[in-house]
Design brief:
Blueprint lengths: L17 E5 L3 E8 L13 E3 L4 E2 L1 H13 L4 E9 L2 H13 L6 E4 L5 E7 L5 E5 L10 H5 L2 H6 L4 E5 L5 H13 L3 E4 L6 H7 L7 E5 H8 L8 H13 L6 E5 L5 E4 L4 E4 L12 H14 L4 H15 L12 H11 L5 H8 L4
Parallel strand pairs: 1-5, 1-9, 2-7, 5-6, 9-10, 10-11, 11-12
Antiparallel strand pairs: 2-3, 2-4, 7-8, 12-13, 13-14
Helix pairs in contact: 1-9, 7-8, 9-10, 11-12
């Protein structure tokens, strides 16, 4: 990380001064299959590995948050990794980024979370993820160990709960965050959303960040529906009975994003860029939202910052674009030719903030 290109904020300039997060910490490989027909149950298929580094959700989101908010913003991940080469590499990278690593444990004899992502030549594909990894052992007792750090952030901190650790553990983190009056952000997979609704975990959330497929899972609206705005409003209406103040963001690829702050629905288009990989773009978007909110921006302005982070992230084949910083975001914004609001311009263009 180039410290000279970071945003450097005085703690008094930040609405929130730190974040405690949980979610998967792991890595993966990308494999491109030859031929587009769906892989058969007993078929052998040739292909090749791609030069792409894969990271898991918590790591991606917190990386951008730390790099963009700088030394004054404290980032504390909660997670478990294996006592293996992959875990050691990820631990070193997180340390180098500036994370507080007190609550990242190495578990002997258990592998680090790993995904095998496969692509067909037409760009579609899927992934296989281990369910017996160290991340699966992040239990509620382990979350409780970070209680003191959470309490120290009272009124001026954030918590982040994202997939790839058990849902009950994320529920516990959000409970601790709510008790300490922290800003609570979360995302869920489409598969998890029905369970999240049943358990009441969404009542603890200030910001729900999902993609259009996850929004359709929440509302029951078919994924083929073209009216994204209707889906977003339906999602917000469903959540309103449990938490009237909840913010909702929905990303929909090249159609852009929609954000609802409780009063106003805002749409912002995606920024065009040369795409090397869209993997991790949704996580980059959530990181941008958190950065904007931590800086005290309105949700619609945070959405514009998030759009830039997500739009620039796809220029890298890796799920963390390590060239993203204030300077590169500003260059990307100027080159886009799009109109951004003054608060976003001030963040990216003022030399001393």
């Amino acid at each position: 990380m180039e410290m000279g290109t970071q945003l450097k904020f005085d703690r008094n300039q930040l609405r929130f001064t730190g974040i405690v997060g949980t979610g998967g910490i792991g890595a993966g490989w990308f494999f491109r299959l030859n031929h587009n027909h769906t892989l058969g149950r007993e078929e052998s298929r040739s292909g090749r590995f791609l030069d792409m580094d894969d990271y898991c959700k918590q790591h991606i989101i917190l990386h951008y948050t730390k790099v963009l908010l700088g030394p004054s913003f404290v980032v504390t991940p909660i997670g478990r990794i294996g006592d293996d080469e992959t875990g050691s590499r990820l631990y070193r990278e997180m340390q180098e980024t500036g994370f507080v690593m007190t609550h990242v444990d190495k578990v002997p004899g258990v592998p680090t979370l790993f995904s095998f992502c496969f692509y067909y030549p037409d760009g579609t594909g899927g992934n296989l993820t281990t369910d017996d990894s160290a991340s699966a052992r992040v239990d509620e007792a382990f979350i409780n160990r970070a209680g003191e750090e959470i309490r120290c952030l009272a009124d001026r901190g954030m918590v982040l709960a994202v997939p790839e650790v058990p849902l009950g553990s994320r529920h516990r983190l959000l409970e601790l965050g709510r008790k300490a009056r922290l800003f609570c952000a979360a995302s869920f997979t489409s598969e998890e959303i029905p369970r999240a609704m049943e358990t009441g975990i969404l009542d603890l959330v200030d910001l729900l960040a999902i993609n259009i497929d996850e929004a359709c899972s929440l509302t029951g609206i078919p994924t083929t529906a073209s009216d994204v705005e209707k889906t977003v409003l339906s999602a917000r209406e469903m959540l309103g009975s449990g938490n009237r103040e909840i913010m909702v963001s929905v990303t929909a690829g090249m159609r852009g994003s929609w954000c609802f702050d409780g009063k106003t629905l805002s749409h912002f288009p995606a920024v065009k860029n040369q795409v090397k990989s869209t993997a991790g773009a949704g996580d980059a978007f959530l990181a941008g939202l958190l950065c904007g909110i931590a800086l005290g921006l309105e949700l619609s302005d945070s959405q514009q910052l998030a759009t830039l982070v997500a739009g620039l992230s796809v220029a890298s084949p890796h799920t963390i674009h390590k060239g993203i910083n204030r300077s590169s975001l500003n260059e990307f914004m100027v080159a886009s030719g799009m109109a951004f609001r003054e608060p976003v311009l001030q963040i990216l263009q003022t030399s001393s903030i």
